[in-house]
Each structure stands twice: as structure tokens, then as C-alpha cells.
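User: Can you recover a sequence for this backbone? Please restate the input before giving your answer.

Assistant: Of course. Working from this structure:
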């Protein structure tokens, strides 16, 4: 049975991942702005598009990890509730 220290670690890791997701969303939005500006001004946006693709890949990985963390927290919470009964 996971102890309170495990729960605290999961909560901390979940909070850290939430912050990373927020930062990732900002990076993606900024990169899209840069690409739009480059295209509007007739500049080659190929490198920026490659960078955006990398950002999106990292973001998907973060979302996946965040989902796993939330599942672990939900399972932990359920098992702790069963122990209380």
C-alpha cells in the first residue's frame, strides 16, 4: 500500500507536469506566431516548422505522462478510501 510519502511525490510530480504543460502550450503558441509572422513577411519558415513539430512531440509526451500520473493518483485515492471503510 502506498504511503503518504508516495502520495506526496505523485502530487508534486503531477504539479510539476502541469507547469511543464502550461509552458509547453506557451512555447507552441509563440512558435505559431513566429511562423505566421515569417510567412506574412515572405520569409522561409521551414526551420520554425521543424521546431514547432519538435515542440508538439514533446507536448504530446508530457500530456501522456500527465495522464499516467493522474491515473496513479486516482488509483491511490481509491485504495486509500477503501482502507478507510
Amino acid at each position: 500500500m502506498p504511503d503518504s510519502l508516495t502520495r506526496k511525490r505523485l502530487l508534486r510530480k503531477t504539479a510539476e507536469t502541469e507547469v511543464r504543460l502550461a509552458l509547453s502550450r506557451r512555447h507552441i503558441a509563440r512558435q505559431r506566431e513566429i511562423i505566421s509572422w515569417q510567412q506574412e513577411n515572405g520569409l522561409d519558415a521551414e526551420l520554425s516548422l521543424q521546431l514547432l513539430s519538435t515542440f508538439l512531440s514533446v507536448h504530446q509526451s508530457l500530456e501522456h505522462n500527465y495522464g499516467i500520473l493522474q491515473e496513479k493518483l486516482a488509483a491511490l485515492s481509491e485504495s486509500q478510501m477503501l482502507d478507510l471503510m
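That completes the design. DSSP finds two helices and no strands in the chain.
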